[in-house]
Amino acid sequence: MSGAKAGDAARRGRNGRAGSELAPDDPAALRSVAIVGPMAAGKTTLVEELLVAAGAIPRAGSVAAGTTVTDHDPDARRQQRSVAPAVASLVHRDVKINLVDTPGCPDFLAEVRAGLRAADAVLFVVGTADAADGVAAPTSALLAECRRAGLPAMLVLSRLDHARADEAAALATCREVAAGSGEVLVPVTRTERGPDGTVTVHPLLSGDDPTAEDPEELDPSGCRRELVETLIEQSEDEALLESWIGGEPVALDALRTDLATAVARRSLIPVAGVCAPTGAGLDALLDLVVDAVPPPTAHQPLPAHAPDGAGHAPVDPDPDGPLVAEVVHTGTDAQGSRVSLVRVFSGRLRPDTALTSCSDPLRVPAPRDGEDPAGAEAVRGSETVRVNRVYAPLGATLREVPWCVAGDLCALTRLGSVATGDTLCAAEDPVGLDGWELPEALLPVAVTAADRSAQDAMARGLARLAATETTLRVERNEDTHQIVLWCTGEAHADVVLARLRASGASVEVTDVAVPERETVAGSATGLGRHVKQSGGHGQFAVCRIEIEPLPRGSGVEFVDKIVGGVIPRAYIPGVEKGVRAQLESGVTPGRPVVDVRVTLVDGKAHSVDSSDQAFQTAGSLAIKEAVASAGTVVMERLYEVEVEVDDGQLGAVLGDLASRHGRVVGTEPGESGHTRVRAEVPEQALLRYAVDLRALTSGTASFTRRFSRYEPVASG
């Protein structure tokens, strides 16, 4: 973070004007919007130009040059795309607008959800040049996320100056995607192109008489009249409808009020065109945000729980209520210190305040497939933290402010172990907000330290990553002895590895090993003979065992059938220990033998040279011989997979599952033209399924996996 910039802003804040703009006392003077949209739609560029238009920054940066405000993360600059939510604030018409720039890459869906959690509305950005480039699928997936968050939305058609810009086609695509949702998409701006290609954007809710027919040369499409008619249809004001039917003029203020009401009800999505590089439409868009986005006080109460997980009353968006805030994202500054992005939902957050931090018990990940992931946090409960200073973020620049009121966003530093999803509240009324759902990381990446000296650095780097990467899972696999990083996709894996190496850890990526088991193909006997005589106390142990297969999932059963004392009772536990140890390590290295019954039937002992250790060795030798005689069957891990897929792509998904030796066990209709497919698939075929399924379905399908059992390896 820039210390000089933060200090200058803090001094201005104490002098009054900057502090009042960046820290309004009335939530009615606040608007927080998440900038959401597919990749390359121009979201970051739009944010940059909006900041310039409002005078928040002197000039716009470039994504390609890595100089934008919100793509301040080194990995965002390297990939030339957003990889985490970033906040930049501006003031327009005495209203503070928090712009939350979110990634468009599907790998960073968790960051999109964090941005939606921080906002009161969505600016959904779609490039007008992308209508023919398969933008419908990612647009559909992201719109579904916005609906799930329950936020009002506005559609921004960007890149109007592009050579292939087709505003009508882009709007038609979005209307097709939104079909059936009950949302009406209606333009609130009109685009005009001059002979020289110059783009001009006209707001439609302006002028003296919005009900009059516009001259053909001013509005040849009649879109202004369409907007007015749509607003009157959406209006709950019967008098307004009667005035319209009677041909009387309708006041612009009434139409703007109806627009805001329809947006808040999520029955209408206003559509605005912008050309960010030329500034066309930016002022109209800022006016739309101020006029149509509901203030934070209109936010729905949030479900909450007590620190112990018990019930608690919902949290109302009350600026005079008890303090309740939530950490929606955790990042790092240039020095590697943690910076927490916080949304205040109730009360006022002030500097030099002691608060209680409550972790959400629902956010603690369960062990994967019965194994212990090293990255999983324990339930931390409540702890006391101190807020020293409160900052208004402008990307990486932190500007000190005197407070942060309900509905506003701020940045906090030095919060100790406080993590994303934790609630900050007053000590006298501890409460935790119910967390939002995180996408499951389903792409495994195996890493190893480049040498022995790098192991400690890797462990420290992974611990730091676990604190900031909410979807990263770190697993130390007990079967393969690998460290596996579970990521959400290749772009996420690239960021994780880059940050791990930047922390000083020298790591290499290796192939992910899939655990396998063996069982015996039939029954057999084995003789273990361990006899050594070397001039002193010798070793003598002989045992004969029988081995036979058991049903799947039975484990290992040891049966003692020694009669006549041929093996003293004191040595039989030694035989069992040797048998079980050899089965666990495997006759074939790395493949434990399971689902077998081992019966001890005969043996010999010596009164002087026999020992427990000698019979352990004899039991191990007997198992090796018996397994070799019986023959083995290699067993692989089988997973229950559930795929949620669009009906139009069902055939492609079913064919792909068949190519992976998957067995479909059922299908059932899902929501909104989707089908849920249940199948059993070998783990080896799932290693890159997160990437392959996304490519197969343009990112619209999702899946979950759950370990089922071990099955014989499929042939072919």
| Poorly predicted residue ranges | 1-19, 211-217, 364-379
Overall SS class: alpha+beta
Give the overall silhouette: elongated
Distance between the termini: 56 Å
Report the β-strand fraction as a percent range: 25-35%
What is the residue-mean pLDDT, rounded to a whole number?
A: 88
Helix percent reads: 25-40%
Radius of gyration: 32 Å
Count of runs of 4 or more consecutive helical residues? 17
- Lateral arrangement of strands in the main beta sheet: 2-3-1-4-5-9-6
The count of DSSP E runs of length 2 or more, i.e. the number of strands, is 35
Main sheet, how many strands, which sense, barrel?
A: 7 strands, mixed
